[in-house]
Amino acid sequence: MSTSSPKPNPKPKASAATPKASAKGTAQSKAKPKADLKPNSKANAKPKAATASKTNAKAASQSKPSPKANANSKPSSTPVLKFNLKIIQKELDDGKVSFTITIPGNLTADLIKGAAFILALQNKINLEKVEIDKFDEVVIETVGEAQYNAFVNHYAMSAMTPYAITEKGIEPIMEPVLSSDAEITPGKDFTYRAVVTKKPHYELESYDPVTVKMPRVEITEQEIDRQIYSLAERSAQTVADEGAIVWEGSDVTFAIETHEKETGSKIAHMTAERRVYTLGEDFLPKEFDDNLLGMKAGETKTFDFDLPGAEGPTGELLPSKPVTSTITLIQINKKVIPAITDAWVKANMPEAKDVQGLRELLRKEGMEYKQGELENSKFFAVASTLAERFVGFIPDEIYDFTRSDMMANLQETLKQQNMTMEQYAKSMGMEEQQFSMNFMLNVRETLRQGFALDALARHLKLTLNEDDIQDTLKRMAPGNEEKARADIEGSGRSYLLTEAALRTKANKWLLDTATFVYE
User: How far apart are the first and last CA of the chain?
Assistant: First the structure.
């Protein structure tokens, strides 16, 4: 399923056929404890796990899945061979199923060790200084016994529940509600309860091939002019702006020497014979920039300001400190953009002989790029059109879960890019309120497209083969297909890959049968 949404899209474009983009239970975004029963630093458990062993704050959905659950059905007991889990399953009302799961005693010790290892990493315990036989004791002393027990319980339940879901063929829509009446103990069977909300099944108004309106691909003269100007800008030379004075936003070159005011020690990273600096980019405090305003080339100025603290060893921001800087302004810089002439083209663009040839080249490359973008967008456009035929009501609980899940994924992506949510919203040209509204629209579109593709896959009676799985993995994690598969299947969540592959195959059928109208 595609995740295209009303523009601007507050989430990087991805297919909702992938696990992260779809509304799932099983704590897939944050806590993915693998059941390999070895300490695994990649299993980042949720912070709330330490207090979630009794109940899960997320309400179960009130939607009615198909086939309809029968609250009076008799419990069934089935052994899961991989870990010899014993599962007692009972259908409940409102599209839920209850699992009573027993983890055999030969697994509990390793699960406890895995949970303790993650707690140690989360709390920055130096493992090299901890004796093996005192490892658990050190962790308990650090986090407290109550939090330790709750976390270990939740870790074990989270690790094993996906295997039960997979074995019983359940399609979850939200995170299971996990609870236990006892604490997990090494060498003893551990029994707990998992209540899973099944994914609702919806229908469509029509299952006919879709007709999609698409824009015609064209390159305007204005676009070519902008490309040429961009080329010229990249070839600009920086020279001294003779006679100028420093203003806000000026680009300057100066010599700088900085000392701590209290000790007189020179600060190396704030001392240089020549440094280029642009005012207003918030690299240094505003009071630093203010002291440069009005200066001319050749002038020297000494002033005090508070230098922001660096990042500490554990990521905290250290306190700022008073410093004294002496600045000698070497020059105020300006860019000289060259005129794009036949001679310039001949000297700098070997693919083109003259300005006209450059324009033709830019037109050709622009058309190829736009045509490729158009073809890529078709995959998402057909799913969005199909979603317009969606029939049914999606409960608020599912919206809330999906919104939280997608927001967590976005925040994780932004963290990797060292970008705040506010910066991201501004990069999209939106204020905070508009960003929130667009994000909720994206959540709605993601859910509707996913359920619509599910309905189409059922209607077409699609089945999967290995080629379908590989195609889906390439879309999910290009270049890392085997690792993605191992991560999904190794955590017991093969149902995520199955759903993603069925949605992708339905999406491809839509693409192959669609009629595109260009206007």
Answer: 25
* E strand or H helix that includes residue 301: strand 300-307
Label the pairing between strands 515-518 and 211-214: parallel
Measured CA to CA, the distance from residue 385 to residue 397 in angstroms comes to: 25
217-226 long-range contacts, CB within 8 A, separation 24+: 217/367, 217/370, 217/371, 217/374, 218/367, 218/370, 219/362, 219/363, 219/366, 219/367, 219/370, 223/366, 224/359, 224/362, 224/363, 224/366
What angle is formed at CA 67 by the lines to CA 65 and CA 69, rounded to 5 degrees? 75
- Which burial class, exposed, middle or buried, applies to 28 when counting CB atoms under 10 A from its CB (0-12, 13-18, 19+)? buried
Say what the pLDDT of residue 149 is: 93
- pLDDT tens for 308-344 read 987 766 667 788 999 999 999 999 999 999 999 999 9
Given a contact cutoff of 8 angstroms between Cβ atoms, the answer to whether 180 and 100 are in contact is no
Contact 95, 61 (CB under 8 A): yes
Residue 291, pLDDT above cutoff 90: yes
Question: How do strand 251-260 and strand 321-336 relate by DSSP bridges?
Answer: antiparallel
**What's the pTM?**
0.68
Is residue 35 over pLDDT 70?
no
Half-sphere exposure of 191 (CA within 13 A, CB side): 6
User: Are 139 and 4 a contacting pair, CB within 8 Å?
Assistant: no
